[in-house]
């Protein structure tokens, strides 16, 4: 199946672009959502996390206390490595399963970590959503009700803008209005439908 990876920095518009592709009947797999699924109550990974960090890492309803876990791994790189080694293969396997089950013309893997992890190996084509840093900050602070400093820290921890752009097969400039974003997505959709068709034909040819 033809798989498009969709990425961009915080506040660049990954969710907005994903929604537009979903409206066009494309299957969008959200890597963030998959990352939450693999640590749901009942999942083996959650038991392993509780075993390592103690049951204090669980909320009273049995769900993972993400904030507490984020604090631990932020302060201890060794714990972060352990967690990544546990979760990344599980996330990858679940993404592959979802791609396998997809009946759409093509699928999109939307992920903030597409280029930072081996998730880019799962896609045929990379789309980067790009806005300048000031736009990232203003849109994210408004969305999350946070301050600019916090958003700046997240941006600093992500892949630098020029390196992200260098890895793009296609770029979406989301500096305009939402109305201006839609035709950009539609144009790419037409291109991806064609590429997906070509790939299917070469598979059978
Ligand atoms: P991401 O998923 O990459 O973090 P979002 O899609 O959530 O980014 O976009 C960040 C915020 O900016 C959201 O509140 C969204 O509604 C808003 N937004 C996205 N695109 C635009 C745009 N072209 N113009 C104005 N606001 C936008």
UniProtKB/TrEMBL annotation:
UniProt xrefs under Gene3D superfamilies: P-loop containing nucleotide triphosphate hydrolases
SUPFAM superfamilies membership: P-loop containing nucleoside triphosphate hydrolases
One function term, GO molecular function aspect: dephospho-CoA kinase activity
Entry's EC annotation: 2.7.1.24
Reactions it catalyzes: 3'-dephospho-CoA + ATP = ADP + CoA + H(+)
Sequence positions that bind ATP: 11-16
Pathway entry: Cofactor biosynthesis; coenzyme A biosynthesis; CoA from (R)-pantothenate: step 5/5
Cellular compartment(s): Cytoplasm
Tagged with keyword Cell membrane: no
Keyword annotations: ATP-binding, Coenzyme A biosynthesis, Cytoplasm, Kinase, Nucleotide-binding, Transferase
One of the protein's GO biological processes: coenzyme A biosynthetic process
Superkingdom to which the source organism belongs: Bacteria
PROSITE patterns on file: DPCK
CC per GO annotation: cytoplasm
Transferase as UniProt keyword: yes
Described purpose of this protein according to its UniProt entry: Catalyzes the phosphorylation of the 3'-hydroxyl group of dephosphocoenzyme A to form coenzyme A.
Family statement: Belongs to the CoaE family.
Stored PANTHER family: BIFUNCTIONAL COENZYME A SYNTHASE-RELATED, DEPHOSPHO-COA KINASE-RELATED
Protein name from the UniProt record: Dephospho-CoA kinase
Annotated organism of origin: Amphritea atlantica
This protein's encoding gene: coaE
């Amino acid at each position: 199946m033809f798989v498009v990876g969709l990425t961009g920095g915080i506040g660049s518009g990954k969710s907005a672009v994903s929604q537009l592709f979903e409206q066009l009947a494309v299957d969008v797999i959200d890597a963030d959502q998959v990352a939450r699924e693999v640590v749901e109550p009942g999942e083996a990974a959650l038991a392993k996390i509780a075993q390592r960090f103690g049951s204090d890492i669980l909320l009273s309803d049995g769900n993972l206390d993400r904030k507490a876990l984020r604090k631990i791994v932020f302060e201890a790189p060794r714990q972060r490595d352990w967690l990544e080694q546990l979760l990344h293969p599980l996330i990858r396997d679940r993404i592959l399963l979802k791609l396998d089950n997809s009946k759409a013309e093509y699928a999109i893997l939307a992920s903030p970590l597409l280029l930072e992890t081996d998730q880019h190996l799962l896609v045929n084509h990379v789309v980067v959503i790009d806005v300048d840093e000031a736009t990232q900050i203003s849109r994210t602070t408004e969305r999350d009700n946070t301050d600019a400093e916090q958003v700046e820290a997240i941006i600093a921890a992500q892949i630098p803008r020029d390196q992200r752009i260098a890895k793009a097969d296609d770029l979406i400039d989301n500096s305009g209005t939402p109305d201006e974003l839609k035709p950009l997505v539609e144009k790419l959709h037409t291109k991806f439908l064609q590429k997906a068709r070509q790939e299917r034909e070469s598979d059978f040819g």
